[in-house]
Design a protein that fits this description.
This protein is mainly α. Helix content is about 75%, strand content about 0%.
């Protein structure tokens, strides 16, 4: 099996499992997507998905190969600053209005654990295995696009959790934009663990806001959307004009292979 097919197979399995989890949460447990209590089901599903990602990487790859190593250049962390500032602002707003009486405090903690599992497993699969699988002997542009598309398609299964068609389309568009930002950041950093932290804080903010009586700060997504579009354009342009060291090394290696007898 080729490395690209292997990566797509993992993405397909991951998507199928989360789809089953969404269906079970809605139709068996009675928790729709968007109901903070749906993490009572999703937490177990995410444990399975993390186990799947770890098994897959140990069986077919190694940890540095999927981006679980040192950051290539600490200055590249500045790319996390624009979305990071918005997320931190969102947490400040949420924590200043949060109300967590009784049972909701436990659910809020479970949301934190579940979204941490989401951040780790999704980054391992989509910016780890898929992105780097397509980078091997392939175009960096195709690799970033496939990573963004497969990450976006993952969220189509929210339909089985009770999200209507228009809501799913909106999520597909937004997560595609996020994928267009995360993929080049992962390449520039040479590591995916900083993205795991950012991913976790964003998901925890959104679902944690639903858990509190104050609700989520609705304007956060509206603020992030134009920022994400602008940063995606700048990042893709930077990959072309100022490719990171890892890509320059790969280009030199490929060029030397062409000239070998």
């Amino acid at each position: 099996m080729s490395v690209k097919l292997n990566a797509l197979l993992l993405a397909a399995l991951y998507t199928a499992i989360i789809g089953v989890g969404m269906y079970v949460s809605l139709h068996w447990a009675g928790y729709a997507y968007g109901d903070p209590y749906f993490v009572r089901v999703l937490s177990w599903v995410e444990l399975v998905l993390l186990a799947l990602a770890v098994f897959w990487i140990r069986a077919f790859y190694n940890w540095p190969e999927v981006g679980m190593g040192k950051i290539a250049d600490a200055r590249e962390l500045l790319w996390l600053l624009p979305p990071g500032v918005i997320i931190v602002w969102g947490w400040i707003v949420l924590l200043s209005h949060i109300q967590l009486p009784g049972e909701r405090l436990g659910v809020f903690a479970l949301v934190g654990l579940t979204t941490l599992l989401v951040g780790i497993s999704e980054e391992l699969v989509y910016r780890g295995v898929v992105l780097r699988g397509f980078l091997k002997n392939g175009s960096v542009w195709v690799a970033m696009l496939v990573s963004a598309v497969t990450f976006s398609l993952l969220h189509s299964v929210n339909y089985f959790g009770g999200v209507n068609g228009a809501g799913v389309v909106a999520q597909l568009k937004f997560t595609f934009l996020v994928g267009l930002v995360y993929a080049p950041i992962a390449i520039r950093l040479g590591a995916i663990w900083p993205l795991m932290v950012l991913h976790w804080l964003w998901d925890f903010l959104l679902i944690g806001g639903l858990t509190s009586l104050s609700g989520p700060p609705a304007e956060i997504a509206n603020l992030l959307r134009p920022l994400i579009i602008a940063e995606a354009a700048i990042l893709w342009f930077s990959i072309w004009i100022f490719p990171p060291a890892s890509l320059r090394h790969r280009e030199r290696r490929d060029e030397s292979h062409k000239h070998q007898p």
